Amino acid sequence: MATLNSNVPPGPLADKWRTYKSNLKLVNPANKRKYEVVIVGAGLAGASAAATLSELGYRVKCIVFHDSPRRAHSIAAQGGINAAKNYQNDGDSVHRLFYDTLKGGDYRARESNVHRLAEVSVNIIDQCVAQGVPFAREYGGLLANRSFGGAQVSRTFYARGQTGQQLLLGAYSALSKQVGAGAVELVTQHEMVDLVVVDGHARGVITRDLVTGKFHRHSGEAVIIATGGYGNVFNLSTYARGSNTTAIWRAYKRGACFANPCYTQIHPTCIPVSGDYQSKLTLMSESLRNDGRIWVPKKNEDCKKAPADIPEEDRDYFLERIYPSFGNLAPRDVSSRAAKRMCDEGRGVGETGLGVYLDFAEAIQRYGKQVAARANLVNPSKEKILELGEAAVKERYGNLFDIYHEITNESAYKQPMRIYPAVHYTMGGLWVDYNLMSNVPGLFVLGEANFSDHGANRLGASALMQGLADGYFVVPYTIGNYLATLKPNSRPSTDAPEFKAAEENAASIVKRLLAAKGKEPVNHYHKKLGKLMWDYCGMSRTKEGLEKAILEIGKLREEFWANVNVPGSGDNMNQALERANRVADFIELGQLMCRDALAREESCGGHFREEHQYPDGECKRDDEKFAHVAAWEFQGEGSVPLRNIEPLNYEFTKMSVRSYK
Amino acid sequence: MSLIGNLYSSSIGRKFIMAITGLVLVGFVFGHLVGNLQIFLPPDHINGYAHFLQGLGPVLWLVRLVLLVCVGLHIWAAIALTAESRAARGAQAYGVKKWLHATWASRAMRWTGVIVFFFILYHLAHFTLGIAGHETFKTQLPEWTMQHDAKELGITLAKQGEVVHDVYSMVFLGFQNPVVSIFYIIATSLLSVHLLHGIESLFQTIGWRNGTWACCLRRAVTGLVILYFLGNLLIPGAILTGLAKPAEGTAAAMLGCTACHAASVPATAVHN
Amino acid sequence: MVAEKPSTKNISVTIRVWRQPSAAQPGRFVDYPARDLNPNMSLLEMLDVVNDQLERIGEDPIAFAHDCREGICGTCSLVIDGKPHGPHHGVASCQTYMRSFEDGSVITIEPFRARPFPVIKDLITDRSAFDKIQQAGGFISIRTGSACDANATPIPKETADLAMDAAQCIGCGACVAACKNASAMLFVSAKVSQLGLLPQGQPERDSRVLNMVAKMDELGFGNCTNQYECSAACPKLISHDFIARMNRDYIAASFRAAFKPKPAAGSGGGA
Ligand SMILES: Cc1cc2nc3c(=O)[nH]c(=O)nc-3n(C[C@H](O)[C@H](O)[C@H](O)COP(=O)(O)OP(=O)(O)OC[C@H]3O[C@@H](n4cnc5c(N)ncnc54)[C@H](O)[C@@H]3O)c2cc1C
Ligand code: HEM
Ligand code: HEM
Ligand code: SF4
Ligand code: F3S
Ligand code: FES
User: B2: burial class by Cβ within 10 Å (0-12, 13-18, 19+)?
Assistant: First the structure.
């Protein structure tokens, strides 16, 4: 049984981090270079950590499976990053950001972590601007903000529709500076395939070189995993195709607890599925909900009509109707489920009936009139207003409209977008304490790969914030506290038996995959798994469904190992093998997610159990029994994993029923 | 690295050298054209002008040196950059290759440049050294006595009565040979093509071009090059077709009347 | 950006794909049929389907680089019918849809070709040279935690927007692939311009451009002859104006480096 000590420091919430920081143990500057930190992943979390730790003087090795750190999935984040700067003077504060995030997570996150996140959010913006991240600005030259779901203030900083790209490029540039200076060893196109634990402490990783197929051993005083989320377990998701669970899954199998695996976020505004060939789903940024209005026809028989033919009074702007105070900006889990309910009622639109409208007609009119008024146009014609309005909308969301056009071949200026929820983020991940260290000492987990700050639902624009907070401002302090307990240069030799055993383990998996020589391609199994997960562990879950899924996935796993066909060999680049290696882990993780969802007999945030809802279909939490983190512990192949619990003791906030009405 | 080092060995530095030398050469060829167009004025003009230039002595040599250095650097940079770029492209060519934006002028720079280079060699041999077309070379022709003072921009180029080389006749007689004329026309067209990309390109290289006025720049360059091309076409063209007839009393008028109509007779026929 | 008259019926095509087992081995084109494709399928999804068929019969699937599949990560890198990233303007390979192709057509797919981007396998090339250029100066040296308040330095909106135009580069390398000289000027100029435009980037402006260009040359990229093929192939439509800007910056920096007074000896150790 793992010990899960959250190590939250004592004291008032607002002072915890400050006091704790000043009491952390330090490593003498001259000694820092005698400690090597192996960092896996160079997304926002990994790159920012690698840059900062090496600036501090530690030896850093940074490993990514991509061909360049700049390609990490963080690059795809569109909308923005939150920070409690209160530049808009609209009443924002650290406390309010803290509260919104905690509430947004349906009171299933650790209070202390979330508060720290809100505190350092302001430093992140300073840091990024200093790095040359070209955030959007107002005419006066100051930073601009927009609103995101789950908040009533404008605190989201953005760089057009490419915020994640710009932030990642900022972190990547900081990392590049350190690599160029010889302070970070960058290892690209290597996939972490095992964690090496020596005497109970994480002391290194095994990687497979994706180009040569060779295995490599990397040893360090500490290991940081920042490998992102595992939403591709659903096959179809907004994740990049390469996002995987392998690093955290194999760490889990070495003893790290996996917390809240079932908490997945389904994002309401994605382009609907169009066919079974589809390989990924595309997000339409939440920022669109600033101006777009979501609706479905009131009458089922209108669903196949062209949207323009449906008169205003026959449209149901359901988010505005059900959640008048947040309207179209209700949080993601809430909006997604509402959309699903509409489609379940038979009011969905599009060929599949799985879609709702996101309509910009009103915004185009509003902006058109505004621009016309500003330009002192007298009695502008309808066409003129439309033209000006479209131009204004284009300036704000042009690239998203273009993407929509490319994918669907429809113009969202002329007709409403069709959108539907899709898997987008995983709140669960490896369990970490306040120091971001897992229950395996020496193993730190950052960014989306850990479970820490978002509870059961993440608010928009807060993943980027968390990734950068972890990497720039948290782990650089807390890791010192751990390293200071070790002797300098105490990392084991890579010839140690633990390294050998781990390498053999990873190699044996590859060997088995290649030996199967069955009949079906890897994708076949990924698709099957994805369907099971979406049907039974997706937007809504039931006891029966989950029990069924656990069984089915078990069978799928056997079939996979018996009947997958991975051509080629293991000693050169083999993309089928890469995929197979990942899908093997997804299958196992999928089963764990279902177990977790089954055990959590309540609804909260992204986890919706049909058995636990209010009459209006909202989540019904059970704080009595489930105000805790579930952290699963591996018990060996074939055994049911152990569900450990970390209680969530709220000292400062009252858990209340979340309402966006 | 030092300034010279940067200019000499970096890709941008070498391009900058090409641009600056190209600019000097552009200045020269435009000036040269303007000077040459005096061929359509009475012989005093161009002959006086040539006489003046010849008389500059060390200054002339200085100018020649600058031009020579420019041509040398320009060609050196062109060869060095081209060789590197070829190597950078790699051994394996594309199976299918589409051009997207590059103009034909820009794609032909290396060829037009090389041909212009050979033209310059020939041209020097022709009008400056008298190796080609020796018979009609200015030193072989009767000298010209200035009828009036030749004045340009307030400077007296040659005084009335001065005896000078008859460049006027040399050009007329030279271009009465169709092979020579057509070669000049082809070469100067290629030079125009070279300039069509070159002049615009040099703004980009120096960093003075951007999207806001790129369109104006392109129009201006195109206009300028068309003028340049027409000017250059006019000289051999008009002489060859007989539109321009040599002035009375010049060697060309006396020697050339037979030659200019019997177009196929080489210039040697007039030698006597 | 979408075909004029998109097909709504399923189509069949032949793909002519460059197959090359590794850098050391020679490559060649191989034809594969791809039948009954939904026109809304992306080109990469079409390759997935072909690969599934190959895997089913135990043949080596076509290796191609991809990740985000939404035009932002810069991983995908195909030359499709002679144009890097395919027939459309301003989109990446992964955003090319089958509706852009006619029923029955032959689609030639090959890797980016340039000496600094050696083929790893089939359609995948090694573009780590770009990282090396970035490491030579594509950053602002700011230590974590030492920044002043983000609003302390206002930046005119136009400047910030222009910097953002440059910053959008996804590092895909299509500019190099499209340039007949295999020049990396568009990529490098985008980064140099982004940081050079912003006030934060001023202290290192000269050293940045000098070092990045030197690295670019060292890595064996070709020389720009202002062909503008790069910007035409660029999925983010990065403007070649940035090349002009970098040229100017480079020359100015070279002159400044030569004539600027140099401080006496380094800053010394201090107490
Ligand atoms: C389409 C989309 C839009 C989004 N928009 C927003 C937004 O607007 N605002 C917001 O706050 N959040 C947004 N998010 C969420 C946010 O982008 C991610 O949660 C966050 O970027 C994750 O960062 P990360 O550093 O944890 O991981 P990633 O960026 O995923 O990085 C993972 C890194 O780990 C490496 N890696 C992974 N596995 C291995 C392995 N086995 N071996 C070696 N290396 C490995 C990869 O190479 C990569 O470098 C969005 C997400 C998506 C999908
Ligand atoms: C003598 C033989 C010549 C050769 C081999 C030559 C070759 C070249 C080449 C290869 C280029 C580069 C093309 C490019 O950058 O797009 C170039 C550019 C240029 N050339 Fe020439 N050229 C020659 C003569 C001339 C002459 C006589 C002139 C002027 C009258 C001239 C003017 C220019 C200009 C202005 C440029 C543009 C420079 C730039 O791009 O910045 N060249 N030349
Ligand atoms: C129709 C076109 C041209 C005519 C009629 C013409 C005429 C002449 C004449 C008459 C001379 C000799 C002057 C003298 O020494 O007395 C001369 C010299 C020269 N011309 Fe031209 N020319 C033409 C085009 C060109 C072009 C296109 C170039 C360059 C690309 C060029 C380059 C030169 C040079 C370099 C000299 C030598 C100058 C010197 O003495 O240093 N000419 N030309
Ligand atoms: S400049 Fe354009 S083509 Fe070149 S790497 Fe950047 S995005 Fe790709
Ligand atoms: S195509 Fe090549 S030549 Fe220059 S303008 Fe672009 S790098
Ligand atoms: S796959 Fe990411 S840009 Fe194409």
Answer: exposed
Among A66, A134, A566, beta carbon nearest to C163:
A134
Q: Which chain B residues touch C215 with a CB distance below 8 Å?
A: none
Mean pLDDT, residues B118-140 taken together: 92
User: Of C231, C240, C250, which is closest to B12 when you measure between CB atoms?
Assistant: C250
Give how far C177 is from chain B: nearest CA, Å. Answer: 9
What does the block give as tokens for A379?
């009695």
Which of A74, A279, A479 has the most C C-beta neighbours within 10 Å, making it the best mutation to test the interface with C? A279
The answer to whether the CB of B243 falls within 8 A of the CB of B44 is no
Q: Is residue A412 part of a domain?
A: yes
Phi, psi of A358 (to 5 degrees): -120, 110
- Indicate the residue of C29, C79, C223 with minimum beta-carbon distance to B11: C223
CA of C13 from ligand 6 middle (Å) equals 23
The owner of tokens 């949207």 is: A307
In whole angstroms, give the CA distance from residue A242 to residue A72.
Answer: 9
Of the three residues A423, A450, A468, the one that is the final residue of a domain is: A423
Tell me which residue of B204, C150, B12 sits closest to A170, measured CA to CA: C150
Give the ranges where A347-442 is alpha helix by DSSP (H): 361-374, 382-408
Residue A141: inside a domain, yes or no?
Answer: no
ipTM: 0.94
State the residue range of the domain holding A354. 268-423
CA of B191 to the centre of ligand 3 (A): 13
For each of the domains in chain B, give its residue range(s) and CATH number, in order of start. 3-87+99-261 (1.20.1300)
A418 with A507, same domain: the answer is: no
| Across A126-135, B186-195, C3-12, least confident range | C3-12
| Last residue of one domain, picked from the residues A423, A445, A462 | A423
Please name the residues between 51 and 80 in chain C that touch chain B, using a CB distance below 8 Å.
79
- Indicate whether residue C223 lines ligand 2 (CB < 6 A): no
Check CB contact under 8 Å for A134 and C201: no
Mean per-residue pLDDT, B233-253 = 92
CB of B268 less than 8 A from some CB of C: no
* Ramachandran quadrant class, A40 (left: phi over 0; alpha: psi -120 to 50; beta: rest): beta
Average pLDDT over residues A200-209: 98
Query: For atom 7 of ligand 4, which residue has the closest CA?
Result: C169
pLDDT band at B266; cut points 50, 70, 90 = very low
Q: State pTM to two decimals.
A: 0.95
